[in-house]
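Can anyone check this?
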Amino acid sequence: MGLLQIAAAFLALTGTAFAAPATPSAQYCDPDSTVCYSSSTVGIAAISYRLAIPNVTASPFDILLQIVAPKTAQWAGIAFGGHMINNTIAIAWANGNTSVISSRWAR
């Protein structure tokens, strides 16, 4: 899937400067769930965005999203509509040794 590479290139938001280009999309298979994701790493914080989309012909449908970021990134997110305003965004940040995950809608 090249979708994640495209998504990461212009949809990804990070809490640090977004200066480095995205790596080419690669497959990542989670050893615990055996789900395979399209994965791309972006930014100087080296945040990985992993996306699995089912083979469906109708919507709505669920997607699986993993954001793998170092704590130094402070927060990471993705806007599903190409920009933050008037689109659903998913963000995550570290809270001690756990993560906080939230979906938002920016006006």
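Reply from J.R.: I decoded it. The chain has a mean pLDDT of 77.
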